[in-house]
Specification:
alpha+beta, 8-stranded mixed β-sheet, 10 strands
Length: 156
C-alpha cells in the first residue's frame, strides 16, 4: 500500500503520493467528487483538469473533512486555471503583475489617452492600466503554455 499525505488548499484536497506525484480532489455535486493531477513548477502548484469522477461525500461532510487536514504550504502560489492565487490568503497574487505596476506609476496627464466618444464626449483610458493588463496576460499565457507542456510530459 502506498503512503499518501493529505492537505487542504481552498476547496481542494491535495494528495501527495509516495512516488512524488501530486493529485487533487474536490466536491462536485451531490455526493460526488472529481479529481486530477497537479504539478509543482517553481513556487506554483498547478492544478490540472479533472480526470476522475467518483462517489464522494456530501458537501458539508467534504468541507468538515477538508478542514481537519493540514494546510498546503509547499508552494507559495497555486493556479487552478489562468489565475495564480496566494496559498495562504486564497487571493489573487498582486506580486505577479498588475497591482505592483499600477502602484509604481502615477496617473499623470501623459498617462491618459482621450478618444472622442459616440455622442461627442471623451473616453479616457489609462495607458498604465493597459500596460499592466498586457503584462499580466502575457504571464498568464506563459504559465498556461508551461502548464500544458508539463501536463503532457507527466500524463504518460
Amino acid at each position: 500500500m502506498t503512503k499518501e499525505t493529505f492537505y487542504r488548499l481552498g476547496r481542494y484536497e491535495i494528495i501527495e503520493k509516495e512516488n512524488g506525484q501530486v493529485w487533487w480532489e474536490s466536491h462536485s455535486g451531490f455526493g460526488s467528487a472529481k479529481g486530477g493531477k497537479c504539478f509543482v513548477e517553481g513556487n506554483i502548484l498547478f492544478i490540472g483538469p479533472s480526470r476522475t469522477e467518483k462517489d464522494g461525500f456530501l458537501k458539508r461532510e467534504f468541507i468538515e473533512r477538508l478542514n481537519q487536514l493540514p494546510p498546503w504550504q509547499k508552494t507559495k502560489y497555486y493556479s487552478p486555471s489562468h489565475t495564480i492565487y496566494n496559498c495562504k490568503t486564497g487571493r489573487v497574487s498582486p506580486e505577479l503583475g498588475a497591482r505592483k505596476e499600477l502602484n509604481k506609476q502615477n496617473n499623470s496627464k501623459s498617462d491618459i489617452v482621450s478618444k472622442e466618444g459616440v455622442n461627442g464626449g471623451t473616453i479616457s483610458k489609462s495607458i498604465v492600466g493597459t500596460k499592466a493588463t498586457t503584462k499580466v496576460k502575457k504571464k498568464i499565457v506563459w504559465a498556461w503554455r508551461l502548464f500544458k507542456d508539463l501536463l503532457g510530459r507527466y500524463s504518460h
